[in-house]
Design goal:
Layout lengths: L18 H18 L4 H21 L3 H19 L8 H20 L15
């Protein structure tokens, strides 16, 4: 894989992030691309290229089957929405909502001393 935009991430920094933090970072580039699409096509295109590169870097590092499936589906729907015919009927709003949860969780982790429970965690149930 040729890394064009995120050469510093090849030095192991990216592998120290959780999947939630990685998806929050990917989401910031996706949202940037979507927000600029009608204003400046070049800025939008570059942001989408950076987002796809981050997905590819993450795919090359991830080992969990669930994360791999999620990342592959994300990449497929994103490319379909941005570059092709939007076969999956995605919307900019659906991508905003999708990434908002990761951004929120990443911020909670960053500013909290308490660990974030896993997705399957139900409060009060042991």
């Amino acid at each position: 894989m040729i890394i064009k935009y995120h050469k510093e991430l090849n030095k192991g920094i990216w592998s120290t992030y959780t999947i939630v933090e990685k998806l929050a970072n990917i989401g910031s580039e996706v949202i940037r691309a979507l927000n600029w699409k009608s204003k400046n096509a070049e800025i939008s295109r570059l942001a989408m290229e950076r987002a796809l590169e981050l997905i590819d870097i993450t795919l090359s590092e991830e080992k969990g089957e669930g994360a791999l499936k999620e990342l592959c589906r994300l990449r497929e729907t994103l490319v379909d929405f941005y570059y092709y015919s939007n076969t999956y009927s995605s919307t900019a709003d659906s991508f905003h909502r999708y990434f908002l949860s990761f951004t929120h969780a990443a911020q909670m982790k960053r500013f909290s001393k308490e660990p974030i429970p896993p997705a399957h965690y139900t409060p009060g149930v042991k």
